[in-house]
Amino acid sequence: MYQADDSAPICDQAKTTCPYCGVGCGVTATIEGGAITAVEGDRQHPANYGRLCVKGSALHETLGQQGRLTRPWVDGAEVDWDTALDAVASRLTAIRNEHGNQALAAYLSGQLLTEDYYVANKLFKGFLGTPHLDTNSRLCMASAVAGYKRAFGADAVPCCYEDLEEAELVVLVGSNLAWNHPVLYQRIKVAKTRNPLMRVVVIDPRVTDSCEIADLYLGLKPGSDARLFNGLLSWMAAKGKLDELYLTRHTQGFDEALAAAREEASDLESVAADCDLDAEALETFFYWFASQLHVVTLYSQGVNQSSSGTDKCNAIINCHLAGGKLGLPGAGPFSITGQPNAMGGREVGGLANQLAAHMDYHTPGAIDRVTRFWRTASLMPTLPEGPGHKAVELFSAIERGEVQALWVMATNPAVSLPDAARVRAALAKCPLVIVSECVTDTDLLAYADIVLPASSWSEKDGTVTNSERCISRQRGLLPPPGEARHDWWIMCEVAKRLGYGEAFAYAHPSEIFDEHARLSGFENAAEPAGARRLFDISGLAGLDRAAYDALAPIQWPVTAQAPRGTARLFEDGHFATDNGLARLVPITPRGPEQRLSAARPLRLNTGRIRDQWHTMTRTARAPRLMNHRAEPFIEVHPDDAEAYGVADQRLAVLSSEAGEYRARVRVAKSQRAGEVFVPMHWSDRFTKQARSGALISGYTDPLSGQPESKHGAVALAPLSTAWEATLLVSEALSEALSDAAPWCESDYWARIPMRGCQRWQLASGQVEHDWLERLAAWLPEAATLWCEDAGDGRLRAAAVRNGRLCWWAMVGPPAELPGLAWLEQRFNDAELSDTHRRRLLAGCDDGAADTGPTICSCHQVGQKAIVSAIRDGDTSVEALGARLACGTQCGSCIPELKSLLEEERTHARTKPTPETQVA
After folding, report:
1. pLDDT category of residue 695 using cuts at 50, 70 and 90
2. Which domain does 880 fall in, by range?
3. If you average pLDDT over residues 163-180, what whole number do you get?
4. What is the dihedral of CA 603, 604, 610, 616, to 10 degrees?
5. Which of 249-258, 304-313, 907-916 comes out lowest in average pLDDT?
6. Residue 677 domain-assigned?
7. Where is the 4Fe-4S Mo/W bis-MGD-type domain (predicted)?
8. In the predicted model, what is the mean pLDDT of residues 714-720?
9. d(CA 399, CA 433)
10. Shared domain check, 124 and 36
11. Is residue 410 part of a domain?
12. Rounded CA gap, 206 and 222, in Å?
């Protein structure tokens, strides 16, 4: 902490971690006057070395007390903490006494810190005696976990981030790294510049921004990943590209795995046909993979979110084992997780099929070992005898009435789970729903009987583990607002009221971490080599509070033998199986369970977009993150757009067996014909009917329990509209209207937060005859300015009161909108000038530049400004960055900048000359 002079405010800088994806970037936050005023990447953190993506760089913009939960609620009424905690304890006890331990359940999140996770697992599995504790990490990485366990005997990611930079070949499978893990993408991009021999292969049904650095793109048919990698294994064997010595010394099951691969993928041409790929391109990939030792295959949701996701993971791992491509620098099958602490949740037993410290129910002696470790002087835990319900099945059990009480922490299953209507019906039926949440703006709260205000990022204090097994401190920098409390504290207080206070007498998260570290090493060293748990951080046990506060990032295992951590696993070729040998698994590929039909002929893919996170409860608080993709959308190939009668930027409807989705069409050649893509982020808080989970049926992988979110079956049709309108409403007026905005009765609406106002995009199939009358019915402030063309139904209007802009409206397609930056500023004017008032209906100053759709979110640079700069002679990304600053911070927009440069080059080549015009 420093103070420049007596009059200057105290300024402090503190290190923490980003709460978004599994990269686990270090963050340096600047704190002034009790608020975080800026963030930047931590230059010393090994995950990012100072880099941040646009979401991370906007973290300080997502803070503030507006919209935060600050007091507990019971049955719809605010109460004090004692009343709320007593209600939780008494109602859980009543249900347990009447229906048994297994009537209780918890559903957690990769947003929780490891210490929160540990206490939850201990309370529910150890002392409430229910196995039904699962996590939303089930939705993103459970198949990767199951695949690692089958192959290596443990949930152990063998690689580290440095391997991405040391590889000769990086294969991205089902991973749009450029958008979903931008910092790792930038690390690979820099490494590729430094090593011209490095190659990158992208395997994905969609041409994504990650293809910008690809030497080879394979646009495979969705669901055919296992067949492709079976083909690779078969090809390696046929061409003599196996590592026979490695297979003999360190693996088992190769003959069976190869026989299965040959049966399903006997020759290259049939594999290419099954995957809908060019045979020559496929053979190029096979040759590159087989010929290089230093190969990293980085895979994510595109592989995992499948009814056969575990098999796909093992098909990838089989190829690495067969070629001896792991356990050395720049090599290995690398699952990249989607949440900041998905790995930490796995460590403490956050999945329903786990106990704690990477022990499973079937691990010999595990139940007894954990029972003895958690036993106190007067309390004996009662652990379940077997696994509980995984996420999708958990909500089915609630629907059946088997589970009577559910405690949800830091997640939004009313939006994120498949078959969302069924999930909501189950929540409405559940006798007791307890929700620990930090914000009021979440769909789940409508189903809650008890709401407990929890701390959030910048307030929570503990640890997280990223995708490369690196444990980092996420430090509490600010006090929680109002009466919000930390999740671990809330659960400990409930435990005390249940009679378990002795086992939950923690005063600080450092004490929880210490217990977690001790359990990880408990009786581990005494086990035979094949039975020892790879997850062991006993070298971090015994840290006092000061040492815990100062804990530097470190990769597990951390033991007496490896006190500085372990960057890379399996370097000695010894695995965590009974005999120390890795297992190759025979794979028989299976197609998606959600089958296409004449009624639903299109394959649906869902996923993340660049500037949003999960259900937008955090990112939507930073208006600039809404600019890149302001509305939910349906990405459609041009041929399908023509075939199904939809048009770019017009509204359309997707329908499936499970539900319906309404959004704006984006026609894109990057999308394969016969397939569509929708983002997963929008919820009922931001749009009428654009929850991706409403389109996905509840099919899951039988081994991992992970839903088949990448393989929906849908029909596409235009949304019939008589009109479209844009409405901007001041924050003050929005707060007065609350959730009762009358225009939400429209057939389509999307709410887009802006600085100082809320933007609404509206549409309906009902003809509106008098727009001024309709606006008067919707809004308490009457229009003071308007211009109308009754002939074509166009209107612009605005209301000004006491010199301030209250609302602004335009009836007409969004393509006719002016750039909204000028109007956004007017909502923040304390009093409109006469000039600005005269220009309100135009929506811009006379001669003001419309910069177009935002491309660079970091510096708010629009498409029109970029195109203008290109036409003025800035014909490289570097030149655009020098002029406009776009692409100079996180780099996520560089692929789009390159696309615009190429489009302009094409335009320049095809533009008629005066001579050709005359001719």
Report:
1. very high
2. 854-910
3. 97
4. 180
5. 907-916
6. yes
7. 11-67
8. 98
9. 13
10. no
11. yes
12. 9
